[in-house]
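name: query_chain
kind: protein
chains: 1
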Amino acid sequence: MPRPNKTLSKKKLIVFDLDGTLTETKSDLEADMAEELRRLLKSKQVAVIGGGTYQQFKKQFVSRLHCPPALLSRLYLFPTTATSFYRYRHGWKKVYVHELSAIERKAIKVAFNEVLQAITYVHPKKVYGKVIEDRKTQVTFSALGQDIVAQLGNKGVKMKEEWVKKNRPLKVKIARLVQKSLPKLHVHASGFTSIDVTRKGIDKAYGVRQIEKKLHVKIKDMVFIGDALFPGGNDYAARKSGIDCIPVKGPQDTKRVISSILRS
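structure:
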């Protein structure tokens, strides 16, 4: 884990991935991480980008942050892979939402079902919630179901980790074939068990550029912290923006980075 230097300590805005960085996948924000983030918000602006819906962000992250309004005004949310942006101004307000059309969302669902049938994909014996979820701004395939962590907690997290260890090449294959079927859209093989489809050009690099545009903070004055900044990882696109990056291995690693930034 790189230690923040004097240059890094001068960054005005810290951008975090959510799942695997601030929290375990689809798991609630832990109290000690919330405390670190509250301390960070006193001196830095903070943005969070992730694949979950705005409702999932509120449940998993914001409701556990226990943050006063003065600090929430320094926090910016970019759910569903930055296809939407919310900021706090006497309550959470929508800045933009890029919804897919009903025709596009239907075409995505058809593409997933046709690809799964073509490769004779066999669903797990039990899934937890929807396997293909229409999030309006993106459509997401989740191999074990959208609600596995909500229903099973840490057991669900372990099951997702085990699934991706066994099936990563399969997930990449599904994503590649769906992308071939949907050349005008963008397919992200994200998370442990998920594949997201959004409009072309919308990814975490897009989110970073929107931060620069909407908040008037230059990219050189930001840093991105994520657990999947390697080629093929769901944070890797952020590097295209030219933002400085710090890779982490999980929430415990992230807390150490935050502490180092605060100390510096």
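note: The chain has two domains: 6-98+202-263, 102-199.
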